[in-house]
């Protein structure tokens, strides 16, 4: 009896999941100069104000922000520019110096526009 209830439920859940292609969404990974939890909060929340950005998740271990966005409303270049306007490095683009100076002190450890080099 439990099997007869769980199987249709599992099928419905799997069928209900839409892929990024099905929804017209795209993904982008951008290397940043993030150093702390405040950086994570600033970047994730700041990107949500960018038109077309649906989700932003910063992985502090790799300094990469994973962005899900509507490709009809924004582009990878616009997303990178939005990150630089927050004061952070975005791939090969340096962060805006004025925005960088307004970041909390903990976020300024690596210097504006400098990628964070992880030590092995």
Observed structural traits:
120 residues, alpha+beta, Alpha-Beta Plaits, three-stranded antiparallel sheet, 5 helices, 3 strands, globular
Strand content: 15-25%
Low-confidence stretches: 16-20
Question: What overall geometry do the principal axes of the alpha carbons give?
Answer: globular
> On the 0-100 scale, what is the average pLDDT?
82
Q: Please, how many domains?
A: 1
Shape-level CATH architecture: 2-Layer Sandwich
Q: Give the SSE order as H and E letters.
A: HHEHEEHH
Walk across the major sheet and give the strand order: 1-3-2
CATH topology description: Alpha-Beta Plaits
What is the count of DSSP helices, taking H or I runs of 4+ residues? Answer: 5
Radius of gyration: 18 Å
What class, by secondary structure content? alpha+beta
Largest β-sheet summary: 3 strands, antiparallel
- The CATH class label is Alpha Beta
| Strand segment count | 3
Distance between the termini: 54 Å
State the helical fraction.
25-40%
What's the gist of this structure?
This protein has 120 residues and is of the alpha+beta class.
Structural write-up:
This protein has a single domain (20-108), classed as Alpha-Beta Plaits, CATH 3.30.70.100. The protein has helices spanning 2-16, 20-23, 37-48, 76-85, 97-101, and strands at residues 25-31, 53-59, 64-70. It has 5 helices and 3 strands, in the order H-H-E-H-E-E-H-H. Strands 1-3-2 form a 3-stranded antiparallel beta sheet. The model is unreliable at 16-20 (pLDDT under 50). Strand 2 and strand 3 (64-70) form a beta hairpin. It has 120 residues and is an alpha+beta fold. The relative contact order is 0.18.
